[in-house]
Amino acid sequence: MLALTLTADLTGITELRPLDTAEEPYFYTFKVQCTSCRETHPNWVSISRFESTDISGSKGDANFVWRCKSCKRESTASIKDAPKTYVHASPPTRQTIIEFDCRGLEFTAFQANGEWMAKGLETPTKFNAIDLAEGEWYDFDEKSGEEVSIKDMKWEIRRA
């Protein structure tokens, strides 16, 4: 099991999470490495928890099935549950966003592509279409009259 974790400085917002519904799935984007030969796939790969692929020679399926070009081994990854929200903490703490059951592969890097959402820390304001690709995000909460932000983001892929 691997977990994607985030440590971030949230100002004025809480409950940060990817927009990940059956109607609008989030595609988690990673660099992937074979655990047999340690070959790293040259491209970024994207995984959705709402898509599955059959595993060859098995009755099972997985959210991601990959055959290493070097050693020809087939590997799989499945997303275990819906993503968890990242809640405001002072000082910022490492929190798990999503967990994967990986067989024969490891994710080595993450790109925060796609839309995220959050809500005001002390107001009912909802923030949608948050783009974290640049590594930080700024906006203004009309109800509190304060600037809100996400800064100092650190993504890690760890053993769960």
Q: What does this protein look like?
A:
- Strand 11 and strand 12 form a beta hairpin.
- This protein is mainly β.
- The model has no long low-confidence stretch (mean pLDDT 95).
- A 6-stranded antiparallel β-sheet has the order 7-8-9-1-14-13, with no helix packed on it.
- The chain is 0% helix and 54% strand.
- It is elongated.
Give structural attributes.
160 residues, six-stranded antiparallel β-sheet, single chain, three-stranded antiparallel β-sheet, 14 strands, mainly beta
The secondary-structure class comes to: mainly beta
Number of strands: 14
Strand content: over 45%
Q: Biggest sheet, strands in spatial order?
A: 7-8-9-1-14-13
Distance between the amino and carboxyl termini: 5 Å
Q: What are the segments in which pLDDT stays under 50 over at least 5 consecutive residues?
A: none
Number of alpha- plus pi-helical segments: 0
Helix fraction bin: under 10%
- The best one-word shape is elongated
Largest sheet, strands/sense/barrel: 6 strands, antiparallel
| Whole-angstrom Rg | 17 Å
Could you spell the SSE succession in H and E letters?
A: EEEEEEEEEEEEEE
